[in-house]
Structure formats: structure tokens, C-alpha cells
Amino acid sequence: MRTTVTLDADVERQLRAAMRRQGKGFKETLNEALRRGFGAISGRAPPTRFAVEARPMRLRPGIDPAKLRDLDDDLEIQEFLRKTARLSAGRR
Predict the structure, then answer these.
(1) What is the pLDDT of residue 73?
(2) d(CA 41, CA 31)
(3) Model pTM greater than 0.85?
(4) What is the pLDDT of residues 59-91, one digit of tens each?
């Protein structure tokens, strides 16, 4: 919907500051602010932010976590070769 809105000077300053902080455009920033405002009015709680809590991996000594990706790649290749060999044998 397209409409013309006249903003008070203090609201314009806050909107422009939010645009700079978030690095977003006028329309997106205004819509987000309105959604938050209407959510507060309706009594709905804003969605909670998802947070990941880091925990130690507790790997055995000598296991390099950077090499786990290589191990996963090797296992995936082996599984692919096993399946293609089985499919090839079934065609003969």
C-alpha cells in the first residue's frame, strides 16, 4: 500500500538513526518499527532471539576438530562409491 505520512521531527530523527544503525532503507525500518509498536499495543510479546550456547567439545587428545570435516568428506566418498558399485553390478 502506498500512502503519504507526515512524521513529527523527533520521530523522523529516531527513524533516520535506526536506518543508519541497521543499515536498512526507510520502508523496511518504518515497517519494522510499526510492527514492534503494534505488537506492544496488542499485548503480544516480541519474538525471542535464538541464542546458541557454546560448550566444550571434549574431544579425546590427539583429535583435531579441523580435520573432522576431512573425515566426513572421506566417509561420504566411500559411501558414494559403495552405492555406485552396487548399482553398476546390478546393471550387468
Answers:
(1) 93
(2) 15
(3) no
(4) 888 888 888 889 899 999 999 999 999 888 877
What residue segments make up the domains of the chain, in order of their start? 9-42
CA angle 16, 17, 19 (to 5 degrees): 60
Alpha-carbon distance 58 to 72, whole Å? 19
* Residue 29 to residue 92: CA distance in whole angstroms: 63
Q: What whole-number distance in Å separates Cα of residue 68 and Cα of residue 56?
A: 16
In angstroms, the CA 76 to CA 45 distance is 44
Q: Please answer whether residues 53 and 45 qualify as being in contact, where contact means their C-beta atoms are separated by less than 8 angstroms.
A: no
The residue type at 25: G
- AA identity, residue 24: K
pLDDT of residue 27: 92
What Rg, from alpha-carbon coordinates, does the chain have?
27
pLDDT grade, residue 36 (50/70/90)? confident
